[in-house]
Amino acid sequence: MRIDLTGKMALVTGGTGQLGRVMISTLAECGADIVIHYRSNAEKANQLLQEVLQTGRKAMIVQGDITSQESVMQMKEQIQASLGRLPDITVANAVEQYAWTSVLEQDPRDYQSQFDSCVMQSVYLAKAFIPSMAERGYGRFIGINTECSMQNFPNQSAYTAGKRGMDGVYRVLAKEVGEQGITVNQVAPGWTVSDRDRDQGTEHNASYEQQVPLRRRGTDQEIANMVAFLASDLASFTTGAYIPVCGGNVMPAI
Q1: Are 119 and 165 in contact (CB under 8 A)?
Q2: Is there a contact between 148 and 163 (Cβ–Cβ < 8 Å)?
Q3: Catalytic residue among 111, 124, 138, 159
Q4: What is the pLDDT of residues 101-146, one digit of tens each?
Q5: Which residue, 145, 130, 154, is CA-closest to 189?
Q6: I need a surface site. Which of 18, 46, 247, 252 has the fewest CB within 10 A?
Q7: Cα–Cα distance between 173 and 185 in angstroms, integer?
C-alpha cells in the first residue's frame, strides 16, 4: 500500500513557506502535478518549480493574494489556461504573519488579517475550485489549521480566532459537498521543525517538548505526510476531520 496521486493535480497556497515547500515536494513525489502559489517570494517559487519539473510532473507557479476573491479567481483562470484543467486537490496553507501580543494590545487590524487569510481564503478557494471537483465527482479540500485552536494560550488571540473560524467553514463545507465525492479536512500542526530551525540550530525547545507526549517537536515532513494521506484515496472515507499532527500535545475529545 502506498500513496499514489498519479493523474491528480494539487494546488498549495503559501507554497514557498516553511511547510508549503515540503508539501509540494511530497505531493509531487506521490505523483501529483503541482500548482505552486506564492505571494512575494518569486525566487523560491521558481526554485520549487524546477524541482517539481525534474520529477517528471507537470507544474506551474501562480502569484496572488489569497485574501482577495478577484485574485483567487485570476489564479483559477491562469491554471485553466496553462494546464488545461483545475486542481483535484487544494491545500490552503498560506496565512498572514503578524506580531503576537495580548488581546488588549493587539492591533485590531491583525484580527482582520487572520480572518481574511484563514476564513476568507478558504471561502474563496472553495468558490473557485470546488465546482470543477463536483463536476468530476472527486475532490480533496485540505486546510492547514493549528494546535493553537485548542490551546487558547495568552497572546494567540488573533491567530486562534482566525483558525477557529476556519474550522467552522470546513466542518460545514464537508457536509455540503460530501455527496459530490469531495472530502474536506484539516491538518493541525504543532510547533514544527522546518528548514529555518535546521539552519539556525533551533530544532529543540525543552519547555515545549516536555509537554508533548512524544517528547519532541514534529517535522515539516510529518505534516506533509498527513496532507498527502488526506489527498489520497487511502483517506476516501475521512471528511470533516480536524487532525492534530503534534505528538499528542492536543487531543480532540468526544
Answers
A1: yes
A2: yes
A3: 159
A4: 999 999 999 999 999 999 999 999 999 999 999 999 999 999 999 9
A5: 145
A6: 252
A7: 10
Handedness of CA 182, 187, 107, 102 (dihedral sign): positive
Print burial letters for 123-145: b (CB count within 10 Å at least 16), e (below 16). bbbbebbbeebeeeebbbbbbbb
Q: Under CATH, to which class is 9-189+219-245 assigned? A: alpha beta
Judge whether 25 and 51 are in contact, CB under 8 Å: yes
0.85 cut: is pTM over it? yes
Closest CA to 143 of 29, 19, 25: 19
Residues 147-158 have pLDDT tens digits of: 999 999 999 999
**Cβ burial 7-28 (10 Å sphere, 16+ → b, else e):** ebbbbbbbbbbebbbbbbbbbb
Q: What is the CA radius of gyration of the chain?
A: 17
Does 159 qualify as catalytic in the annotation?
A: yes
Q: Are strands 9-12 and 242-245 parallel, antiparallel or unpaired?
A: unpaired
The Cα–Cα gap between 180 and 137 comes to: 5
C-alpha cell at 83: 494546464
Q: How many C-beta neighbours within 10 Å does residue 253 have?
A: 5
User: Nearest to residue 15, comparing CAs of 56, 55, 54, 64?
Assistant: 64
244: left (phi over 0), alpha (psi -120 to 50) or beta: beta
